[in-house]
Amino acid sequence: MKKALMIASILMIAVISTACINNIAVQELNNKANEYMQKGDYESAMNRLQASLDLDSTMYETYYNLGIAAINAKKYETAIEALEKGIVIKPEFSDFYYSLGVAQIALADEIMERDESVKEENNGKEGLQPIDIERAKELKSSAIENLLKYLDSVPDAKDKETVEQMLKECEDFINPSQGDSSKA
Q1: What angle in degrees, to the nearest 10, is found between the helix axes of 42-55 and 2-39?
Q2: CATH level 2 (architecture), domain 1-91
Q3: Among 170, 171, 30, 152, residue whose Cα is nearest residue 97
Q4: Strand, coil or helix: what is 29?
Q5: Cα(70)–Cα(37) distance, rounded to whole angstroms?
Q6: 41 vs 131, higher pLDDT
Q7: What is the model's pLDDT at position 122?
């Protein structure tokens, strides 16, 4: 009986020690990622944050920071994925919705810039396929939903006017006025 109790105690200490070491490693990775972000090295920050998530995928802050680093690195798909995973963990964190909206708008704009580039290469003829333009519209539509969630959760947001302008631009893109059909 004493032997079983001693083995159980040793196993318990080992589990607790491993958890503590894991938390220290996660914190060190997050701190290093923060240093890289401050230096503008978003790729390295993303690598550290992903390693942190590999150790502990329950920290919503890490998903948020990964999303921000990815936006700054212009890796919008990665940003969207990270922010959506973070929302699953902590849906009441309003900054997720703002940042997700920003990433979705940026990806839609990137798609449309490719459209202009393709048209230039084809001397003004045929740009992107309709499916790509539809994807851009879906992204802008999702951005509207997320930005509205942000404003609903932070009614007195300091950036309210900026967000409202973003919403208007998204709506204009999705439903262009009769006189300006160049946006869609």
Answers
A1: 160
A2: Alpha Horseshoe (1.25)
A3: 152
A4: helix
A5: 10
A6: 41
A7: 59
Is 90 exposed, middle or buried, given 0-12, 13-18 or 19+ CB atoms closer than 10 A? middle
Q: Fill in the amino acid letter for 30.
A: N
CATH 3.40.30 is right for the domain spanning 94-176: no
Nearest Cα neighbor of 97 from 163, 33, 49, 45 is 163
Helices and strands: H and E segment counts in the chain:
7, 0
Domain residue extents for the chain: 1-91, 94-176
| Per-residue pLDDT at 105 | 98
What are the phi and psi torsion angles at 104 (to 5°)? Answer: -65, -40
CB of 132 within 8 A of CB of 115? Answer: yes
**Number of residues that make up the chain:** 184
Instruction: Say how far apart CA 13 and CA 21 lie, in whole Å.
Output: 12
pLDDT reading at 70 higher than 60: yes
Helix or strand run (H / E) with residue 134: helix 130-153
Enclosing H/E stretch for 183:
none
By the 8 A CB rule, do 182 and 172 touch? no
The sign of the CA dihedral 86, 92, 93, 98 is positive
